[in-house]
Amino acid sequence: MDFIAQDSTLLAATSALALVGLIFCTSKLASFVKVLLDVYVLKGISLKKFGAGQGAWAVVTGATDGIGKEFAKQLAKNKFNVLLVSRTASKLETAANEIASEYGVETKIFAMDFTKGDVQDFTQLGQVMSSLDVGVLVNNVGTNHDIPTPFADEDDKVINDIIEVNVKGAMKMTKLVVPQMREKRRGLILNLGSFAGLVATPYLSVYSAGKAFLSTWSQAVGTELKADGIMVEHVNTYFVVSAMSKIRKPSLLIPLAKPYVASVLSKIGLPCGADIPCSSTPYHTHGIVNWLINNVFNKTFWVNQNDVIQKDIRKRALRKREREAAAARKEN
Ligand SMILES: NC(=O)c1ccc[n+]([C@@H]2O[C@H](COP(=O)([O-])OP(=O)(O)OC[C@H]3O[C@@H](n4cnc5c(N)ncnc54)[C@H](OP(=O)(O)O)[C@@H]3O)[C@@H](O)[C@H]2O)c1
């Protein structure tokens, strides 16, 4: 009799465990299928919702190179007028002329160095923006550690610049644009995030923490602004070919800026691989990697991977510096 009772208890426990396992595996599989649908099949919210083709403007920071320049171009292609904000006036003029003649939209430029955090710059830029119907703000401008460097040895200027540009710059730009977006109950704010903010990255500690700030801040502010008809999207990004990444050759995981930006603009509102509010990882392979990071192994594992990768990059960067210094000595 006892044996029968024990057997049935064991059977019940095994069945319960099997059921929990089934529910767990099914939910994981369903979340992975959703990522595949998002990145490969579904279309995001149309840019028309934010004023494309209706005289609205897109404001892009860091718009003279890399991802920012591509945003400026593709938003113009989608019939936004574009205000390009960046550091170098001559590069701004060239980019704005290129865009105006290629896409037949209006362009304006504003030159400022975000590392200065100059109140006057932001006030003047605010005045320019308040005269425009701004539908989209792309908080793209960013700066990074020159090479992976231990925090204790990092230059104070580099640390301050990263905070001033990547963190404070995005907040100040958002403050400038939100009042008019609120009034019109329409607007899209894209904040350029990084996988360095998803997984803490030793030797790029300040950049990594700044991007984590951007992720958390986007979730909070995005939730606040939803009721005002404003959409905030933290755009989570793995490597893209650019001056900042110092990667020149595209690969399956590392796209050129053009397909990368096209993925962002075609997937607005879809989380793709991201599993937090107001966030998207729109580039297809980035989305899948984001899902893997969230679902396979734990964060300690991924941080340790970053540690190994960054130590290796640092070693190579230091060797390159030595080679360059030796070549310079030879020349003199
Ligand atoms: N590339 C990647 O692999 C990657 C990965 C994850 C996230 N992201 C993020 O994507 C964003 C764009 O990166 P990117 O790779 O396209 O960078 P990039 O190629 O280095 O371009 C940076 C742009 O920002 C401008 N800029 C830099 N410092 C500035 C400052 N102090 N004041 C004003 N403008 C300044 C540059 O202007 P000048 O031409 O005058 O220098 C340039 O137009 C960044 O937020 C970055 O963190 C990039």
Summary of the model, kept short:
This protein has 332 residues and is α/β, with parallel strands linked by helices. The chain is 57% helix and 11% strand. 40% of the residues are buried.
Unreliable stretches, pLDDT < 50, 5 or more residues?
none
Q: Count every beta strand, where a strand is a DSSP E run of 2 or more residues.
A: 7
CATH class of the largest domain: Alpha Beta
Domains counted in the coordinates: how many? 2
Strand content: 5-15%
Annotation field: number of helices: 10
- Give the overall pLDDT as a whole number: 97
Bound molecules: NADP nicotinamide-adenine-dinucleotide phosphate
State the end-to-end CA separation.
Answer: 96 Å
Might you state the CATH topology name of the largest domain? Answer: Rossmann fold
Percent of residues in helical segments? 55-70%
Please tell me what the overall shape is.
globular
Going by CATH, the homologous superfamily of the largest domain would be NAD(P)-binding Rossmann-like Domain
The Cα radius of gyration reads: 23 Å
Major beta sheet, strand line-up: 3-2-1-4-5-6-7
The largest pleated sheet is described as: 7 strands, parallel
Order of helices and strands: HEHEHEHEHEHHEHEHH
CATH architecture classification name of the largest domain:
3-Layer(aba) Sandwich
